[in-house]
Amino acid sequence: MGLVKLNVGGHIYWTTKDTLTSKGPNMLSSMIRHPNPAKLVDGALFIDRDPEIFRWLLLYFRGSNILPLRTSIDLWLLREEAEFFAVEGLLCRIQHILCPSYKKNDNVMIRGTKCTILTVDKNGYIVTRQNQRLNISSAENVEPASIETGDVVMAWNQTLGKRKRGICMAIEIDSREFAIQFDGNDDQIMCASSGVRF
Fold first, then answer.
1. Do 40 and 123 share a structural domain?
2. What's the rounded Cα separation, in Å, for the pair 48 and 175?
3. Contact 163, 155 (CB under 8 A)
4. pTM for the complete prediction?
5. How far apart are the first and last CA of the chain?
6. 12 and 66 belong to one structural domain
7. Which of 48, 98, 169, 185 could form a cystine bridge with 179, CB 3.0-4.6 A?
8. 184 and 132, same structural domain?
9. CA-to-CA distance for 95 and 98, rounded, in angstroms?
10. How many domains does the chain have?
C-alpha cells in the first residue's frame, strides 16, 4: 500500500501510492515511482501548488465524482492543476463540463458503435442506440458519425405516430430526408432527418 506524505503549499496531505497511480500515468505517479529532484520537507515531498485546489485533485484520485460548480473559479483552477499534473481523465471531464464537444441530436461513434446523443450532462452524454439508453463518460473517445445507407436506425413513422426500427436505404442530401424501409414492410418511406436517429 505504501503511504505518501505530500506538502502542498504548506498543507500536509497523506495518501497512498495506489491512490496516486489509480488514474493512469501522471506527474504525481511519476514522482513516487521514479527518483526525482523534489525537495523533502520534514519527510514530505514538497509541491509548490495551491493546497485548496490540490484537495479536489486528490479527491478525484480517491474516486470522487464531485467537482467544483461549473460557474466557480475553482473549476478553472482545477483545470489548470489537471493540466499541470497531466491528469488526462480529469482534464477531459472538466473540458467537457466547460465546453461539451457535442450537443443533443448529434450522431456519434463510441467504441465502434453509432449512437445519437439525447442529453449532455456534467459527466458526459446520454445516448440512444435502437431505443436503448446508455450513459457515456466524457472521458470516452467520442467521434462524429453520420447516418449512411445500410445503417439500422430508429425513424419516426408518420402512419404509426412513433419511432420504428428500419434500414436507411437512400439519402436525399438536398431535401435532408432518408428513405427508410421499416421492419416488416417492403416499401420505403421518406423521413425527415430530424426524425431519424440511431
1. no
2. 59
3. yes
4. 0.63
5. 46
6. yes
7. 169
8. no
9. 5
10. 3
